[in-house]
Amino acid sequence: MTITITGFKSSPDRGQGLARDMRVRWALEEVGQPYEVRLVSFRAMKEPAHLALNPFGQIPTYEENGLKLFESGAIILHIAERHAGLLPENAGARARAIMWMFAALNTLEPPIIEYQNLVLFERDKPWHEERLPSVKDRVRDRLRPLSAHLGDAGWLDGAFSAGDLLMVHAVQRLGRSGLLDEFPNLQSYTARAEARPAFKRAFAAQLAVFSASQGG
Ligand code: GTB
Full-prediction pTM beyond 0.85? Predict the structure, then answer.
């Protein structure tokens, strides 16, 4: 079985691991599945060959024996359902882990992306300064209950799961914002995840793509 995923040929984050191929790489590393990566340029993502994999012209995509998937959450659920290591065996615990996957994608990630877009791409807009406090508050409104739920626990619901993987990858985008300083247990949570050998392997692999693109 050969698994092929796609990633940016040249990631705008310069190898910080913020693009969503990172979470798929990480999931595959957690379950010990080898994979190949096809790197695509921004132009190639909008051409027919890639649009046949993802009609929205984005990365990541996933191919395995004729199966073609897009959407990082769906890809990770597929991986987690087929290989041990990312979802508990117990039916209730499994349902809760999937619930946390959806919480990461639907409840945490949207305000975090809204904040990131404002900071990265809308700095020169006349409404930037006026809008920033309310956008930051919407992020805090999600981090506060997440932090309260996590408390002193290591992971969101028992053992590390695909829910933690997606949650950490969403929250990591706030790395340099200062917003996580208000929630030390979330900082420890992301640090704990980043210390996992599977995370380190995935991070190093996507960083190597950036380094190679710089000729190093
Ligand atoms: N919902 C989809 C999923 O989860 O798979 C979203 C996929 C998506 O947003 N893909 C982005 C993409 O292909 C890359 S990850 N964008 C190109 C396009 O739309 O034309 C988003 C991303 C991009 C860059 C950074 N960065 O540089 O920091 C971080 C995250």
Answer: yes
